[in-house]
Design goal:
The chain has two domains: 79 residues, no CATH class; 186 residues, MetI-like (MetI-like fold, Orthogonal Bundle), CATH 1.10.3720. Helices cover 75% and strands 3% of the residues. The chain is built from 14 helices and four strands. Strands 1-2 form a two-stranded antiparallel sheet. A hairpin with a 4-residue loop joins strand 3 and strand 4. Helix 1 runs antiparallel to helix 14, helix 6 runs parallel beside helix 9 and helix 13 runs antiparallel to helix 14. The N and C termini lie close together (12 Å).
Length: 338
């Protein structure tokens, strides 16, 4: 088991290194003057040259990537050039490991920017996960036990209609009508637990969380329905019914346990993806999470921030895959042979 876990972890680390290198190549090898964007529109050529040296943009891409990887392991100092640091020691910023870079446009390390935005994305993702799990699994079970009825067709049809609408349409509709025009819920604005308490924090997450959950709800309804129907057709289910067990016991104790196992994998990977930021939902509701941070960094061509968020989001997905693989190895010993 430990050898299997170590092998999966090593593969994950290699994938993360490849991800960071490919990201660097895609962005920093582009024919764009990175130093000009970082310095600003009013900078002179001399100032742009100093910025290029300070941020290390004058180095080859592979050297910049090597410095980035070293910063993750051991931390870095910015400006990156030692001579520039020596000439202006008051401008030196220390970035402790794991250092994801420095944003000249925001005059902050990428770690600080992500540290401010990540709690919002994590809270929004967790609220959405709870909503789509409760709604998707419950409706999927109901559709399965009423297979072929109007209830079954209605649930599947309505979830597919919700899934067909683009996320920005659902978000704008909910914000404009549900919150502003009809005033069914307060106008959402992110309030931390420290500032507003748990109730206010959760109240302001419900509407954007619901919008985000709708994007996954249809898939979980259909998958739960399919898994439950498949599980209920197994021989051991017929044996349980032949022994006279009640339908509720057969469904929840025997059928549902086997049916929910694949959903655990789906949930882990979907949650990992959302932890990188729900770009459209956060933009519609102006929630300053990782998604909105990515949009703003893209508009400003703030490459260190973009790369930091991409690497972090990739790390979430890779770690989720490793956890799922190891969990499966505990559940099914045959997986260890893979």
């Amino acid at each position: 088991m430990w050898a299997y876990a170590a092998r999966r972890t090593a593969i994950g680390l290699v994938l993360l290194l490849v991800l960071s290198f490919v990201t660097f190549v895609l962005f920093f090898a582009a024919p764009v003057d990175q130093a000009r964007y970082a310095c600003g529109k009013q900078c002179t050529e001399e100032q742009i040259a100093v910025t290029e040296r300070a941020l290390g943009y004058d180095k080859p891409v592979y050297e910049q990537w090597g410095a980035f990887v070293k910063g993750i392991v051991a931390g870095r100092q910015f400006p990156a050039d030692p001579e520039v640091r020596a000439a202006a020691p008051e401008t030196v910023s220390d970035c402790a490991a794991p250092c994801l870079g420095y944003s000249k446009l925001n005059a902050k390390t990428v770690n600080e920017l992500i540290g401010d935005a990540a709690p919002i994305s994590i809270a929004l993702a967790l609220v959405a996960v709870v909503m789509w799990l409760i709604g998707g699994v419950s409706l999927g079970i109901l559709a399965a036990v009423t297979k072929g009825s109007i209830v079954d067709r209605g649930i599947v049809g309505l979830t597919l209609v919700a899934y067909a609408f683009p996320s920005f349409f659902i978000g704008v509709f909910m914000l404009k009508y549900v919150a502003i025009r009809w005033e069914l819920v307060p106008l959402p604005r992110y309030v931390s637990i420290e500032d507003g308490g748990v109730f206010t924090w959760l109240e302001n997450l419900l509407l954007p969380g619901f919008v985000l959950a709708l994007l996954f709800l249809a898939g979980y309804v259909r998958m739960t329905r399919a898994f439950v129907l498949e599980s209920l057709s197994e021989d051991y289910i017929r044996t349980a019914r032949a022994k006279g067990l009640k339908g509720r016991v057969v469904l929840f104790k025997h059928g549902l346990r086997a049916a929910l196992t694949p959903l655990v994998t789906m949930t882990g990977l979907d949650l990992a993806g959302l932890l990188g930021g729900a770009i459209i939902t956060e933009s519609v509701f102006a929630y300053p999470g990782l998604g909105l941070l990515t949009v703003q960094a893209s508009n400003a061509w703030d490459l260190p921030t973009i790369i930091g968020v991409v690497v972090l989001a990739g790390a979430f997905v890779i770690v989720a895959n490793i956890i799922v693989d190891i969990a499966y190895a505990f559940i099914d010993p045959r997986v260890r042979l893979g």
